[in-house]
């Protein structure tokens, strides 16, 4: 029996994690649940899984839940509650599926407390990869990737010497605007961006997929997860999203991991590794799989990949600045304050202005994140869109 805590339990990854648990009640027990402000869904999850504690970061939402809930589960709130859900004594594994930079502090706390991490929050490694991986090594905890691409690479590396790896190949669907040019993207709407052709994900990550910033973040994440130099990490556009990623070895062999577009597959593998267990899910039908296409990404139109390569190679706090700028820009786009292509402009301006710090600490990262958000907010005020 593996006892788990799910941070971000009402989001896309969180709800799918609980779907995996439903199929394997004999393998998993949910001991903690944490969400931002969805008190209605969290209450349903509490009633179903009866954890030791449940957390709503938003204190008003927590108060609403506490006022009507009469069961045995302890209701907590705010950052204190979130950290309790990351470090409690009754679980051994933390699924970190909080969105964005907000996942960093509880993930660090969980590692410090000796918890194994099923990592769905890529921003944690983007902004603090060196810090996180060093701490995990010191504490002897596992960081197992939940992202479909990194779970695929993780599986393709099994049983092989890392020194024989020639290249990591991250596949990308290309998002909803694959094949379009810059002039065709000037006035695209958030609704169009959110119509992802193959995956069902949260709003922020779906916008990141449209800009290919998401793939850029995954490049930085892969660098830290697999201790791989950036010149050995390559992105390949694969619109069918059947091949989730690949590893090329020095003899020319390429090992690929294939599967349906079901996030429960990598979630379950991260929770059961090194074992595999059955999952009731749709399977690939190779008799009806007519084609698999691959192409080079258009980085002139979709700048997210090159921006991430640049940030990663500069190093220090530059990836943190990239991430903060992107989070501010994506939120502004979703709220109708800027246009799609302005997301790139904000990131580029931030990276041009930011002077990276190379003695990276948690304190330095939180300071840079706050500074960049303030600067990006000032940029937004200068823009003319309402």
Automatic annotation (TrEMBL):
Mn(2+) binds at residues 147, 149, 218. Keywords: Isomerase, Isoprene biosynthesis, Magnesium, Manganese, Metal-binding, NADP, Oxidoreductase. 1-deoxy-D-xylulose 5-phosphate binds at residues 122, 148-149, 173, 196, 209, 214-215, 218. Pathway: Isoprenoid biosynthesis; isopentenyl diphosphate biosynthesis via DXP pathway; isopentenyl diphosphate from 1-deoxy-D-xylulose 5-phosphate: step 1/6. One of its GO terms (molecular function) is isomerase activity. Residues 4-129 form the 1-deoxy-D-xylulose 5-phosphate reductoisomerase N-terminal domain. InterPro entries: DXP_reductoisomerase, DXP_reductoisomerase_C, DXP_reductoisomerase_N, DXPR_C, DXPR_C_sf, NAD(P)-bd_dom_sf. One of its GO terms (biological process) is isopentenyl diphosphate biosynthetic process, methylerythritol 4-phosphate pathway involved in terpenoid biosynthetic process. Its cofactor is Mg(2+); Mn(2+). Residues 258-374 form the DXP reductoisomerase C-terminal domain. It holds the Pfam family DXPR_C. Belongs to the DXR family. Catalyzes the NADPH-dependent rearrangement and reduction of 1-deoxy-D-xylulose-5-phosphate (DXP) to 2-C-methyl-D-erythritol 4-phosphate (MEP). This is 1-deoxy-D-xylulose 5-phosphate reductoisomerase.
């Amino acid at each position: 029996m593996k006892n788990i805590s799910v941070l971000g339990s009402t989001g896309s990854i969180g709800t799918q994690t609980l779907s995996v648990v439903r199929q394997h009640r004999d393998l998993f027990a949910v001991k903690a649940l944490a969400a931002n402000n969805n008190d209605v869904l969290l209450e349903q999850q509490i009633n179903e899984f009866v954890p030791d504690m449940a957390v709503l970061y938003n204190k008003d939402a927590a108060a609403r839940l506490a006022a009507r809930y009469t069961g045995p589960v302890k209701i907590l709130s705010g950052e204190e509650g979130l950290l309790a859900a990351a470090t409690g004594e009754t679980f051994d594994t933390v699924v970190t599926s909080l969105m964005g930079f907000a996942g960093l502090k509880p993930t660090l706390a969980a590692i410090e407390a000796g918890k194994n991490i099923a990592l769905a929050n890529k921003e944690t490694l983007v902004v603090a990869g060196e810090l996180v991986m060093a701490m995990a090594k010191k504490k002897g905890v596992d960081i197992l990737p939940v992202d479909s691409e990194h779970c695929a690479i993780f599986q393709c590396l099994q049983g092989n010497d890392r020194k024989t790896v020639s290249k990591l190949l991250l596949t990308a669907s290309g998002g909803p605007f694959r094949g379009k040019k810059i002039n065709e993207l000037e006035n695209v709407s958030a609704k169009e961006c959110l119509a992802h052709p193959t995956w069902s994900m949260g709003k922020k990550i779906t916008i990141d997929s449209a800009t290919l910033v998401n793939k850029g973040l995954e490049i930085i994440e892969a660098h830290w997860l697999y201790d791989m130099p950036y010149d050995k990490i390559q992105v390949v556009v694969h619109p069918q999203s059947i091949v989730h990623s690949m590893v090329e070895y020095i003899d020319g062999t390429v090992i690929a991991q294939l599967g349906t577009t079901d996030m429960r597959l990598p979630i379950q593998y991260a929770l059961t590794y090194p074992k595999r267990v059955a999952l009731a899910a749709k399977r690939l039908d190779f008799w009806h799989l007519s084609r698999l296409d691959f192409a080079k990404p258009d980085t002139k139109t979709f700048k997210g990949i090159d921006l991430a390569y640049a940030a990663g190679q500069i190093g220090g706090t530059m990836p943190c600045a990239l991430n903060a700028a992107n989070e501010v820009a994506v939120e502004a786009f979703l709220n109708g304050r800027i246009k799609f292509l302005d997301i790139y402009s904000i990131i580029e301006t931030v990276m041009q202005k930011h002077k990276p710090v190379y003695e990276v600490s948690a304190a330095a990262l939180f300071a840079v994140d706050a500074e960049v958000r303030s600067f990006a907010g000032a940029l937004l005020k200068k823009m003319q869109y309402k």
